[in-house]
Write a structure and sequence with these properties.
The protein is α+β, with helices and mostly antiparallel strands. Helix content is 38%, strand content 13%.
């Protein structure tokens, strides 16, 4: 290369003269930004001279301040990456395969592939694993990571070892063989981890052992007493025993029933018809007090003298299957039905809808008026399809539980007592419809609980059922006058107004939420005037008078029913006829005429 003669060229800063002499791109860039770096010119002035954009000059100047002369050189190309063979495994996976086989030689090739997939996201083939194990790689450690399950003292660390191995992809079989435990223990530990997480790691106190309960002679004797009613089956026997505190399964009760029938030649329950396909009733309640069902059942099995037909009027809450109100009556008229309906509404509020058949007592003018006043929607089942009414199922239960006792009743009081016992047992014994509930509530009363329907004021309800209720003010001695009788209620409520409820042959005096007294009444032939009142029954209530009585009940005869004379009609006062005297002007005109 010829040597340059510097003396032939004079120093210059003119870009037009410098540019032809520049050879290297780095030198061109440096000559463009040099006046800017030395502060001779601004990026804008240098851009006008050189033709390079101002932003580019500013950028390269900034880069030169940061990196120096290295910023003028082109970037080095990245090192060439050798291509990997897709069939070869990463070194970390190869080492893991060798370590797994060394830690637990019983591993199969498929199990090792599953662990690799859990840890690396890649499942090698068994042939590739076999080639890796045949390679000259050596295990990274010759010690076990976990001791045997029995050798670990801390119970939390025992279960953590199972969970960690399972997280790494170990199978239950491999974990059980590695820790020398059973597979059931591995399954139980993993299940506790799923349900309780870290709370299931410590040891828990052992579950107390409850040996199988043996049937005692007392249990068998109670079953025999209940078996006197031949209509009761094994489920109802089990429910009745549970109410007494004796817990026997229906199967056990069925075996005892069969044994008693063989020993004492007891009667078999009547066979029911062949089971039919179950149909879903249309009025299924989604919540409490959504639907109420009502119907009247004929009790034609009774043996009471001088009684033609007796009826049972009941109201059922469809969701809980609880009987809200029920009564034994001699008539099936509107008055009897409204008395039962009022009892249910006063105690449990109002439902959203009431379901019945097409009976006239349920669709009478007075009943429809009450429905409208209380906002109750009246629903009706289809004719010829009684299965749509939920209370039909309840009446089937009544046939088994109470018909035998109804048939043994000789007096009206016995019949009423049998009905009250059935009502109490039905509501508080377990029901087949609630067997699968998980909240522990299996009886209708437990399912119903404290929940009530829409509430109204007592005065409004009294006005609504005005045809069934009457009010009387108690005198100083605590008696209420009804028709031609004085009936004792409570002397501690003298001057208060008590409610008189009439239900066929029963009269009840009530105040607030408590019944004060109940009397049986006998009507005259016109069904309006009373013929006699008897059988007084005084209830316990919180309104008793605190004043001490002058005489003890044994010293004097205390009459709670006093007949009284009908007060004569008051005569109307004769109005005096006032005759106006003629005026003087009129008298003078008369005389002149």
């Amino acid at each position: 290369m010829p040597r340059r003669r510097y003396e032939d060229h004079e120093p210059t800063h003119d870009w037009q003269e410098l540019y032809p002499k520049l050879v290297d791109p780095a030198q061109v860039t440096y000559e463009i930004i040099r006046p800017v770096l030395l502060g001779w010119e601004t990026p804008k002035q240098r851009a006008q001279e050189t033709g390079m954009p101002e932003r580019t000059i500013y950028y390269k100047s900034t880069l030169f301040d940061q990196a120096g002369m290295a910023s003028l050189l082109p970037p080095e190309p990245p090192p060439a990456v050798p291509k990997l063979d897709k069939r070869s495994l990463p070194p970390a996976m190869q080492q893991t395969i060798v370590d797994l086989k060394a830690e637990y030689p019983a591993f199969t090739l498929h199990e090792i592939a599953t662990i690799c997939y859990a840890q690396f996201g890649r499942r090698p083939s068994p042939h590739t694993i076999q080639l890796t194990l045949a390679s000259p790689l050596h295990p990274s450690s010759k010690q076990r990571r976990y001791l045997a399950y029995a050798a670990i003292e801390n119970p939390i660390q025992k279960r953590l070892a199972i969970i960690r191995l399972h997280t790494e992809g170990w199978s239950v079989k491999s974990i059980a063989g590695y820790l020398d435990i059973s597979r059931q223990l591995v399954y139980r530990t993993l299940q506790r981890w799923v349900e309780e997480q870290f709370a299931g790691l410590p040891d828990k106190p052992p579950v107390p052992y409850h040996p199988a309960r043996k049937v005692t002679m007392r249990d068998m004797q109670e079953v025999k007493k209940l078996q006197e009613n031949p209509e009761l089956g094994e489920y109802r026997i089990s429910a009745a025993l549970e109410q007494m505190g004796i817990h026997l399964s229906p199967r056990t009760c069925g075996r005892i029933l069969a044994l008693n029938r063989d020993l004492y030649h007891l009667q078999m329950p009547s066979k029911t018809a062949a089971p039919k396909p179950k149909k879903e009733p249309p009025f299924k309640a989604e919540k409490r007090h959504h639907f109420w069902s009502v119907d009247i059942r004929y009790l034609d099995m009774h043996r009471l003298e001088n009684e033609e037909m007796i009826y049972c009027i009941s109201i059922l809450e469809n969701y809980s299957r609880a009987i809200l109100a029920s009564a034994i009556t001699r008539r099936q008229d509107t008055q009897a039905y409204l008395s039962v309906l009022s009892t249910a509404i006063f105690n449990y509020g109002c439902p959203e809808a009431l379901v019945s058949d097409s009976g006239m007592v349920f669709r009478s003018y007075q009943a429809m008026r009450i429905y409208d006043l209380l906002g109750i929607k009246k629903e009706q089942i289809e004719k010829g399809r009684p299965w749509q009414n939920y209370i039909e199922t309840c009446f089937n239960v009544q046939r088994r539980m109470a018909d035998w006792h109804f048939e043994l009743a000789h007096t009206w009081e016995d019949l009423v007592a049998a009905h009250e016992k059935w009502l109490r047992d039905y509501n508080y014994q377990k029901h087949l419809a609630h067997e699968r509930r998980e909240d522990g509530r299996h009886s209708p009363a437990e399912v119903l609980g404290w929940v009530s329907g829409r509430q109204f004021g007592l005065e409004y309800l009294h006005r609504t059922f005005s045809a069934s209720y009457e009010t009387r003010q108690l005198n100083k001695a605590g008696y209420a006058r009804f028709r031609n009788f004085l009936l004792y209620a409570e002397r501690g409520l003298a001057g208060k107004r008590a409610v008189i409820t009439l239900l066929q042959d029963s009269l009840t005096l009530e105040y607030g939420e408590y019944a004060l007294a109940r009397y049986s009444i006998e009507w005259q032939a016109d069904d309006h005037h009373l013929l006699s009142v008897g059988n007084p029954h005084l209830f316990e209530h919180p309104y008793h008078s605190r004043q001490l009585s002058l005489w003890s009940p044994s010293e004097v005869e205390w009459l709670v029913i006093l007949p009284c004379q009908t007060s004569p009609h008051k005569r109307k006062r004769k109005q005096s006829q006032i005759i106006q005297l003629p005026l003087p002007f009129e008298t003078n005109q008369t005389h002149q005429a």
